[in-house]
Specification:
Length: 259
């Protein structure tokens, strides 16, 4: 399995906090270009899993592979440099910057000219800055935020802030994008628009792999190719959206005890 067949592979991940087992030997294998859902009740260990993948928490046992290469033990900035970007349950924008500046700041990761080239405005510098401007416009148009580009991020409505956070993560050019509760707080129309945006990201960014945690089952079922269900840190089911919706263990643990 460690031959690079999967964009992201989590093997037998285990994490304990004191006497509480947060993640109990969970396995995930997300192929290149897949949208992979992770669901479960509050406190099931989903965000802990994302925190281990991104280096916020260190793994007690198990392995994490990005295209077959271990990223276990890397710091968050090293994980980001390796090609993993994420959003958070609680929105973390540069709240005092404009919408455009939020994307521009994130895109800086892709610029390679040095400080001297920047001061002298060399040909390479100017070419990269033109591309930056084009990409920032492209990203903002893709989520319907171009017309709001000059607004301060904190002044945006909640749903638009969520979209901005997603596209800001996308501007770092990740190979794997982790979305933690992107539909939280959204109404039905907003969550439907979000589902379309996620599908559009997959369709327009060749090869990108998306992992999504959410409690909005309409979003999960509409966009995901494969779903893992976690309950009390344990993986209790794996399958397609249809298989998950008809799984008795999922119905009992996640939707309430069945008949």
């Amino acid at each position: 399995m460690g031959n690079g067949a999967y964009a992201l592979e989590v093997r037998e991940i285990y994490k304990r906090f004191g006497g509480v087992v947060a993640t109990d030997h969970v396995n995930i294998a997300a192929s290149r270009g897949m949208i992979y859902g992770i669901i479960g009740p509050n406190g099931a260990g989903k965000t802990t899993l994302f925190n281990m993948i991104t280096g916020v928490y260190q793994v007690d046992e198990g392995e994490i592979l990005l295209y077959g290469k271990s990223i276990k033990g890397l710091a968050p900035n090293q994980v980001a440099d390796a090609g993993i970007a994420r959003t958070f349950q609680n929105i973390r924008l540069f709240s005092n910057l404009t919408v455009y500046e939020n994307i521009q700041t994130a895109y800086q990761k892709n610029l390679t000219y040095n400080i001297i080239e920047g001061i002298l405005k060399t040909k390479r510098c100017r070419a990269q800055e033109r591309l930056c401007a084009e990409k920032c416009e492209e990203y903002l148009r893709s989520v319907g935020l171009w017309d709001a580009r000059d607004q301060i991020a904190s002044n945006l409505p909640y749903g638009m802030q969520r979209r901005l956070e997603i596209v800001r993560a996308l501007a770092t050019s990740p190979t794997v994008l982790l979305l933690d509760e992107p539909a939280a707080g959204m109404n039905e129309d907003e969550s439907e628009r979000l589902a379309n945006i996620i599908l559009n990201i997959r369709n327009t960014h060749e090869g990108i792999t998306i992992l999504i945690i959410d409690h909005h089952m309409d979003v999960i079922m509409d966009v995901c190719d494969m779903i893992t269900v976690i309950n009390f840190g344990k993986q209790i089911a794996l399958g397609s959206p249809d298989e998950i919706q008809n799984n008795r263990d999922v119905i009992d643990a996640y939707l309430g005890v069945g008949d």
